[in-house]
Amino acid sequence: MAHIELPQGLPGISAGFAFRPETAKPMRELAHILLHEPNSLEPGERELIATYVSSLNECYFCQTSHGAAAACHLGESATVRQVAVDYTQAAISEKLKSLLVIAAKVQQDGKKVTESDVAAARAQGASDMEIHDTVLIAAAFCMYNRYVDGLGTWQPRDEAMYAPMGQHLASHGYRTPSIQAVNPASAGAAEKTESILA
Amino acid sequence: MAHITLPPGLQGIRGPMAFRPETAKPLNELVEVLLHAPNSLTPGERELIATYVSYLNDCYFCQTVHGFIASAHLDEDEELVRRVKADFQYADISPKLKTLLVIAGKVQRGGKHVTAADVEQARAAGATDIEIHDTVLIAAAFCMYNRYVDGLATWQPQEEDLYRERGKRTAREGYVTVSRDYIPQPTPTTV
């Protein structure tokens, strides 16, 4: 049960967003710019950074929903799983691997990022903007993950429920809700019962 | 030296915010709602939560500037801010704020550390759902801001006096207004 009385039937961050629309707006906007808007890093690469940081923070809802978004962008889910297990063996660019090193350091503490981490990313072709966005994506997911877990939100352990969310995130981004309220009793079927955020 | 080439002469978060105005906008809007907009928790109390979390994250810039914004809201009581950082249980703050700082401290380590008992204690001290929500989100958000500031190795001169006057102005005018000083504004397009 969540720590506070959140709107019924909304999993993870969508419950916090519906409870407090004033803070939801800039939080949605930030995610939209960082993960969805056109950028020299592909949306799939940026979703992998978000998924990886969320897995380091052990946030089930965030790693599963962003993993589903990453899989949509990439057209397959094997890479998403491999990045969570050991990204050095994943079918991703050397540049992205060097950015994941930086993201993992930020997840622990910003001060752990070293000049040589940044030099290694630059040697793989990372631009200042890409390094900036990597640091901010990792930092932002240290916020989103704590928000989702710190409120004790409902996080159904049902991967099938996250696939349509991932599709919405991959195609529409973050400015609009990616899920409608579901009846917790029928969450297994991911049955949509009502839309409360139209 | 910062890890990337940031606009010169801007301290802490101001450098990356000026570097990337697109993300600076929601970052400033979020902190404005959480810390400055009217709320049942006073701005001083909310700034103390932000300062405490920034202290736990060992971010010099954030704990110093938010510490001075807090004291600007709290009759210039800089000693109180220092006491909250050192041991808030013995600080002259409300029992309710103490229970919220317990929750904030848990969120700083990881959201899953917050227990039902922590939340019960806060409620018993009079905290509302929205106050508990905002405490969790302030703590979570400063785990972002602190990492952003430190992860880019921004310029953080260790001189308290630099931050004192700025704190007073931010306390008075808010984050969005003050950010216009250092973030390039989009030029109005003629329609």
What does this structure look like?
The complex is a heterodimer of chains A (198) and B (191). Chain A has 198 residues and is mostly helical. Chain A has one domain: AhpD-like. In chain A, 62% of the residues lie in helices and 3% in strands. Chain A has helices at 13-19, 21-36, 43-56, 60-74, 78-86, 94-108, 115-123, 128-150, 159-172, and strands spanning 181-182, 192-194. Mean pLDDT of chain A is 92; it is low at 188-198. Chain B has 191 residues and is mostly helical. Chain B has a single domain, classed as AhpD-like (Up-down Bundle). Classes of the chains: A mainly alpha (198), B mainly alpha (191). Chains A and B meet through helix 2, helix 6 and helix 8 of A and helix 2, helix 6 and helix 8 of B.
Q: In short, what is this structure?
A:
The complex is a heterodimer of chains A (about 200) and B (about 190). By secondary structure, chain A is an all-alpha fold.
